[in-house]
């Protein structure tokens, strides 16, 4: 029957000229924008800044697979796989492990909004932009925020942290593992134990470090850990893994007030991810299906590569880059090698140069993105990121050649 549909039951044929003719008689006051009548154009770029990084064809292809319903059983399987992939990447057995529908900021807000109630004390280590951001997020939801502040790239000793925990008695302490605005990999050992001793939840940001520098959620007693999709994981921006342990669940599911955000409410999200033990997963929001396909593929690549291999590889390539930078006469912003973030390297702005000019030159002549500082590190550093797929010695060579070229040609200008 369907193959014999009568012509008269189909919409009338539209000649190619028809839309133009119709437009002159249109009731619309806003015409279709000329740009929308041109095809999408996306240039090739070497994304050697702090993110997003280039996405390998295999992950792009996963994201281009046909959409299925976000509540179909096959999608639940894919989400279950993602959960296992995150548990591996975080080295955790936490049941309450999900991917946010949103960028790293969604995970930051989810962590704070769910575990902190208005008026509660929060302690934030600020040594770059990410602590500043978290302090602001906590402040906006009405927490009583205390900060420990150091210059970008500064390291907090466990003694300093314990003193502040004892003084402010926070329900939550935040630390950035991979401080991408400063290029620092902050030590984490022992802090989880201090937080337990002081009845504080330990929240760690690994957006810029996951897959590039070792982190062990369970062994290091981290209560809440999150990351992003677009750095070493190499998936497109827009999803963000996060995990809560039992202590964190205990706090967030016995709270007196509802979290300020409906979208980020973990009681709904845990159901959507099948973590709450209920037989049915109910509609809460429509998850980014293609983004989850891509995230699954990126976690699959990490599982195939192996976490330890991935950490080793990032370190080797970073060390190769660092040596090359020093050979160019450049100074690394983080002096101590062991404290440098392998995924994002910070270079002290060479004396007498205008960093913006260097970056513009590299973009124009090498189609390569590097970036300046962010927040408190602005005017202090140039940042070069070689993460995941981009983390190759030949890419380090390309970055070094571009910088050498820029140093020759942007010589000692106004600054
Ligand atoms: N934390 C860190 C350490 C980051 O580097 C970033 C991204 N640059 C974020 C959080 C925020 O992630 P997003 O931009 O994906 O929201």
Automatic annotation (TrEMBL):
CDD domains: AGAT_like. The keyword Transferase applies. Gene3D superfamilies: Aspartate Aminotransferase, domain 1, Type I PLP-dependent aspartate aminotransferase-like (Major domain). InterPro entries: Aminotrans_V_dom, Aminotrans_V_PyrdxlP_BS, PyrdxlP-dep_Trfase, PyrdxlP-dep_Trfase_major, PyrdxlP-dep_Trfase_small, SP_NH2Trfase/AEP_transaminase. GO terms for molecular function: alanine-glyoxylate transaminase activity; L-serine-pyruvate transaminase activity. Its cofactor is pyridoxal 5'-phosphate. The keyword Transferase applies. Keywords: Aminotransferase, Pyridoxal phosphate, Transferase. Its EC number is 2.6.1.44, 2.6.1.51. The modification N6-(pyridoxal phosphate)lysine is found at residue 231. GO terms for cellular component: peroxisome. Homodimer. Belongs to the class-V pyridoxal-phosphate-dependent aminotransferase family. This is Alanine--glyoxylate aminotransferase. It comes from Esox lucius.
